[in-house]
């Protein structure tokens, strides 16, 4: 029988809801989102995962640059999910008269699947392996009393490692210096190793997000880590 204890302890500390959704966004969440759930049978040869995709800017970039890959985004914040759905779909009158709501999705984004919850719950439900996993600008929870809320503990990094392909990579980006140093210590306790030497140069294009552009911690410098097993 499947052990359910792990599900009991999973907690998501970030917000899951913000301002009220527009009528159009609410319609997409109710009717389109359930059709975009990641399913094992829907897996592509190349699978890419982004954890905490925010408003979805980088996820859209991934879909365009990897049209033959399965792109999965995990994000519990429903306003971010609704924003992504809005950008994925067309609102023109021609599209609105299509027979299926799936026809609203722009062709370049039809390889996107969305998990609107904690990614650890997805890992419990199905076995998926990924060529790349992105975690860009996770909440650093900078106050010491909130450190336990951070996502990238060694235990979670090991869980990600278990879902990597043989040559898969995890790409982490943060503009919070203390958090970056904390993640380095967690990596030392994990089954992963760092393969990039230059932490300040983006390992690939398209890594800009709305969070990065806000420069919340008063700096423009983002540091990146590329990890593998």
Concise synopsis of the structure shown:
The chain is built from nine helices and seven strands, in the order ααβαβααβαβαβαβαβ. It has 229 residues and is an alpha/beta fold.
Can you walk through the features of this model?
The protein is α/β, with parallel strands linked by helices. Helix content is 31%, strand content 17%. The chain has a seven-stranded mixed beta sheet, sandwiched between helices. Helix 2 crosses helix 4 (78-88). The longest helix has 12 residues, at 177-188. It is globular and about 55 Å long. The chain starts with a helix and ends with a strand.
Q: Which features does this protein show?
A:
about 230 residues, disordered N terminus, seven-stranded mixed sheet, 7 strands, alpha/beta
Fold blueprint:
Blueprint: H1 5-9, H2 23-31, E1 47-51, H3 57-65, E2 70-74, H4 78-88, H5 93-96, E3 112-115, H6 119-125, E4 130-136, H7 154-161, E5 164-174, H8 177-188, E6 193-194, H9 210-214, E7 223-228
Parallel strand pairs: 1-2, 1-4, 2-3, 4-5
Antiparallel strand pairs: 5-7, 6-7
């Amino acid at each position: 029988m499947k052990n359910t204890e792990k599900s009991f302890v999973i907690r998501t500390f970030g917000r899951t809801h913000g301002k009220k959704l527009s009528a159009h966004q609410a319609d997409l969440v109710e009717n389109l989102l359930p059709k975009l759930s990641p399913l094992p049978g829907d897996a592509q040869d190349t699978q890419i995962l982004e954890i905490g995709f925010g408003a979805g800017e980088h996820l859209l970039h991934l879909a365009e640059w990897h049209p033959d890959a399965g792109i999965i985004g995990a994000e519990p914040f429903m306003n971010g999910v609704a924003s992504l759905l809005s950008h994925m779909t067309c609102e023109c009158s021609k599209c609105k008269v299509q027979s299926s709501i799936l026809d609203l999705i722009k062709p370049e984004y039809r390889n996107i699947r969305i998990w609107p919850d904690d990614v650890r719950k997805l890992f419990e439900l199905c076995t998926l392996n990924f060529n790349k996993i992105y975690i860009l600008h996770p909440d650093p929870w900078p106050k010491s009393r909130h450190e336990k809320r951070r996502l990238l503990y060694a235990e979670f990094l090991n869980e990600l490692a278990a879902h990597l392909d043989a040559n898969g990579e995890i790409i982490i980006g943060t503009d919070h210096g203390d958090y970056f140093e904390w993640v380095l210590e967690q990596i030392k306790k994990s089954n992963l190793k760092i393969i990039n030497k230059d932490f300040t140069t983006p390992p690939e294009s398209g890594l800009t997000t709305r969070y990065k552009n806000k420069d919340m911690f008063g700096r423009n410098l983002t540091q990146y880590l590329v990890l593998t097993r």
